[in-house]
Specification:
The structure is a single chain. It is built from three helices and 14 strands. It is globular and about 45 Å long. The strands form three sheets. Strands 1, 3, 4, 5, 7, 9, 10, 12 and 14 form a nine-stranded antiparallel beta sheet that branches. Strands 2-8-11 form a three-stranded antiparallel beta sheet, with no helix packed on it. The chain has a two-stranded antiparallel sheet with strand order 6-13. The protein is mainly beta. β4 and β5 form a beta hairpin. It has a single domain, classed as Deoxyuridine 5'-Triphosphate Nucleotidohydrolase, Chain A, CATH 2.70.40.10.
Length: 162
């Protein structure tokens, strides 16, 4: 396994090997890419927030969807790490790995673990995506194995209807 550098990420995008829609130069890091917030859904509130600054109540679960759509090849997966900006404000993230072959926006779960409101602007960078190459290409990628969220757009809490 190897982690892709900024140079590898840009070369992969130029060649079409990797896909990151709505790419923003500020998101590129030496060893990854920072994903930005498109919308936020707060548990217990039926309205999905798509603009402005969202106030996350204390001790509350919330979900973030990314602006960027990602497209992973069959031999690359990615780790997700919450940016320390949000950790320092008291947020805890529940992230998984992006499987080889996944395509879509990402829905990320997080929790305001403080007794204070946390303000999160739509469009702000929320987590870093670290690309890892697999030792060999997957035999069956995400779309072929389960693909429950393949092609998702926006905050998606239930599997995408096929």
């Amino acid at each position: 396994m190897a982690i892709l550098s900024d140079k590898d990420i840009l070369a992969g995008m130029r060649s079409g090997y990797l896909g990151i829609s709505d790419f923003h130069d500020r998101g590129l890091t030496p060893n990854g890419y920072d994903l930005r917030i498109s919308e936020i859904s707060i548990r217990g509130d039926s309205e999905i927030k798509k603009e402005g600054v969202v106030r996350i109540p204390p001790r509350t679960m919330f979900y973030v969807s990314t602006i960027e759509r990602v497209r992973m090849p069959k031999d690359v997966c990615a780790q997700l790490w919450m940016r320390t900006t949000w950790i320092r404000k008291g947020c805890i993230g529940a992230f998984g790995k992006i499987d080889a072959g996944f395509e879509g926006t990402l829905t990320l779960g997080a929790y305001n673990a403080t007794d204070e409101v946390v303000e999160i602007p739509i469009g702000e960078r929320f987590c870093q995506m670290i690309f890892e190459t697999l030792t060999t290409s997957s035999d069956k990628d995400y779309a072929q194995r389960s693909g429950n969220y393949q092609g998702q757009t926006g905050v998606t809490l239930d599997p995408v209807k096929k």
